[in-house]
Amino acid sequence: MVGVLSSLLVYSQNFQASNTYHITGINYEYRMGYYEDSSDTLLHAYLVLSNDTTNQLIEYSLPDIDTYDSVYVREWIMPGYKNVDRILWVQFEYMSGCFDYEVYYYIITKRGKLVPFPAIYYSMCDYPGDIEEFMFDPKKGTFQHVINTYLDKDTIEKTTELETLFWNGKTIQTSE
């Protein structure tokens, strides 16, 4: 069954590195140990357009400064949904023995509006492992919030659907 689903759906790993959006503002001086007291310090990051880094579109407060490892911004251009230019995927990684992930997906409309999906948080140590993500079915206009069990980086053993979301051309909805 997973093989049939896989041929119809687009997964986050099908996204490409974004040339349009990126993250700025991560305080590397703090991260590198130049400041001693972290009790009141939050690590801030901002999603910006690559050609206008002063326009902060989204602000993130990263919860764990000491284990923050990296951030990725990827996009799927021309996904085939009504009034959608692209879907953006932003992932923050934290290393604390295993990896903790904070993942944000956004629809970017043809007018440039960012429409957020529910945020995803999960942990994984090694394969096989469970990854919480969205799978995309443009033909149906749906987004499936799932937990995929991966045998390795590219092979899904099973999919557990948590919910299906719908796109009406303006908003993400929980029912049609």
Short description:
The chain is mainly beta. It is built from two helices and 13 strands.
Taking the alpha carbons of the first and last residues, their distance comes to 25 Å
Q: Approximately what portion of the residues adopt beta-strand conformation?
A: over 45%
Major beta-sheet overview = 6 strands, antiparallel
- DSSP summary: helix tally: 2
Number of strands: 13
Low-confidence stretches: 1-9
**Given the C-alpha coordinates, what overall shape results?**
globular
Helix content: under 10%
Cα radius of gyration in angstroms = 17 Å
Mean pLDDT: 80
Compressed to H and E, one letter per element, the order equals: HEEHEEEEEEEEEEE
**Structural class per helix/strand content?**
mainly beta
Structural account:
- The protein is mainly beta and 176 residues long.
- The chain has 2 helices and 13 strands; from the N terminus they run αββαβββββββββββ.
- The strands form 3 sheets. Strands 1, 5, 6, 7, 8 and 9 form a 6-stranded antiparallel beta sheet that branches. A 4-stranded antiparallel beta sheet has the order 10-11-12-13.
- The chain is globular and about 40 Å long.
- The chain starts with a helix and ends with a strand.
